[in-house]
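Reopening this one. Same input as before:
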Amino acid sequence: MIRIDFPQRDIKKIKQLRDHDPHPRVRRRMDVLWLKSQGLPHQEICRLTGISSNTLRKYLRRYQAGGVEKLLARNFYTPTSELDQHRVRLEVHFRAHPPATLKEAMAAIEQAHRTQAQPQRRGKVPEIDGYGPETCEHNSL
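Same output, byte for byte:
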């Protein structure tokens, strides 16, 4: 159990942010701090906020390390897609030619990705150390 004595100024700030911060994750973090400041046990805080005990401990340690401001940081992991480089072109294409089905949309996306990808080398298999396609046993079958 992590013990924290919350200064009154932090409790006031937490209460204000849990209702008015525009980001839902920050509001959830403030909910966690608010419940902790009210003396609820960790298990109950996790149940009420829908977070794991590891996440709860992470939030409380961040608060101990840097106060409320440390929990306001919006440095959330945001995965990137290989299609990001095609976003503008795809948006223009789909605005001009809205797909009727998901299958049509997928085909257009694949086509856009294929035009940017390196063409695969096709043709004769190169010889390596004297072994080429003509000397392989399975080719004579």
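So the earlier flakiness isn't reproducible anymore. For the record, Confidence is low (pLDDT under 50) at residues 125-129, 135-141.
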